[in-house]
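Sequence in, structure out.
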Amino acid sequence: MAIGVMRAGDACRGVFSRTRSRSRRAGKPCARLRAAALDAADGIGEAELQPQLSFEWGSGHWPSPQSVVKLVATDVDGTLLNSHHKLSQANIQAARELRAAGIDLLLATGKARGPWVEDVAEALGLEGTPGVFLQGLYVTSDMRRGKGEVIFERTLPPGAVAAAVESARSRGLTLVLYSAERIVCAHTDEHSDRLLAYSEPTPEAVGDLAAFVEAGNPAHKVIFMGSEEDVVAARTGIEAELCGTFDCATTRALEGMLELQPAGVDKAVGVQKALEHAYAGRGLTMSDVMAIGDGENDVALLAAAGVRCAMGNGSEALKESAHYVLGTNDEAGGWPVAASLAVHSQPWLAGI
């Protein structure tokens, strides 16, 4: 399923507000980025789309006065793409403005390197750039399928997969396994088929998942799938059974899904590996990075970044840790505002 491009006229309209921090302890943002935020919003408001914009000062500690964004690391579903899994014209234009300002763009997602990447890479001009996939567990030198090399990966041990199979069976949950650029399951059903809406690789029925891994196929992560109520209720028990025995951890990205992956690896680790490999000559560090996300699986990435942006449709915990809370992923005042903040952080635009 191809990723569509939403027309500019389809962009939802937010309400632009310049609010004070929601937390006394947060204080005020540094002068450069606070001015950049207001200038960015004013600038986008005058753009061709003429959207009304919305962002708030978040509750996190503010970036240092020297913060200059050199790379934007962004989540995909719920952040870069809208609720219909489309890439808006406003976001495409914002990405072009990032590149024109000399700012790199890196996608950091829980998704596999599947059919969606070609459409997004072409639309955003990301051919040849690295990709951080599977929550940081699979990092490639080129985000496109069949291109580049794997520069970092981590997998679950076969015993953890076998235990996950039994845990899912006992709870009546569907278990899908991400193996590099494949998604496999014992048999497909209405839950595994939900992944097709995200333009993921088509789930393959392979029978016994434990045997699949024992045969030498990698298991980067597994996802327990079911109703939202069933997944929420099962989380504590699954963690007690699996995380206490194996070196693994859980996270959530979408409703009705609980992910199990190797402990100690997340999107922040994946982005760091990409920086070390592809941007080593520029000496970029996480303090040079603006991170944009919406879910629990983005918490570590935002925590490690120099500038932290949470989507308005994101979790409350993520918003509390952010420097900026944007509009939703269905608003032109969402992702484009973060991109413009990055552009306006540049010294030659900030007047210093």
